[in-house]
């Protein structure tokens, strides 16, 4: 007796089409951005429970606005220059889905920045985020909590993979913050830098 075609034969697992997703995490100042780039890498395409992925850090840098006039016009020009620099820095992922996660500063007790400075930083964040279709703006308390910077950075460093450690900047705490924010955004750290 002939079996109908396809009956009783093992079928290969169906692999869902998942776009190669990228993320950029940003810690900002009025005239600079500390940035970290992340890519979603396949761990096992043939896993029975579905494809498994892991986010990996691929680049980190500090982008600085060119010198210019002070005041609102200068801040606006600096923010626009930073937005262009970020677009150029992230162009390596052109054609792929990309998300921006940017920290928006808030006022809290013990914070040394003045409200006018925080407002300037918020305007910079808005200008930098404007061109991105996928974006999340997060406050420090959402991802850092009230953990001291030294402890949070030690936890973030412990969460990095061996090949990512070279991107950890020993002398730039803003780049370290951008990396730590990215670790939280991709789910490798919990709030306060707690390892997942």
Number of helices: 5
Q: How many β strands by DSSP?
A: 5
> What structural class is derived from the secondary structure elements?
alpha/beta
Could you report the average pLDDT, rounded to the nearest whole number?
A: 83
How do the strands of the widest beta sheet line up side by side?
3-2-1-4-5
Low-pLDDT segments, ≥5 res: 10-19
Distance between the termini: 55 Å
Structural Rg: 21 Å
Helical fraction: 25-40%
Strand content is: 15-25%
What are the SSEs and their pairings?
Layout: E1 21-28, E2 32-44, E3 52-64, H1 72-89, E4 97-103, H2 115-129, E5 134-138, H3 140-143, H4 149-159, H5 173-185
Parallel strand pairs: 1-4, 4-5
Antiparallel strand pairs: 1-2, 2-3
Short account of what is shown:
This protein is of the alpha/beta class and 196 residues long.
Would you give an account of this structure?
It is a single chain. The chain is of the alpha/beta class and 196 residues long. 31% of the residues lie in helices and 23% in strands. It has five helices and five strands. Strands 3-2-1-4-5 form a five-stranded mixed β-sheet. β4, α2 (115-129) and β5 form a beta-alpha-beta unit. It starts with 20 loop residues before the first strand and ends in an 11-residue tail after the last helix. The relative contact order is 0.19.
Task: Output the keywords.
5 helices; alpha/beta; 196 residues; single chain; 5-stranded mixed beta sheet; globular
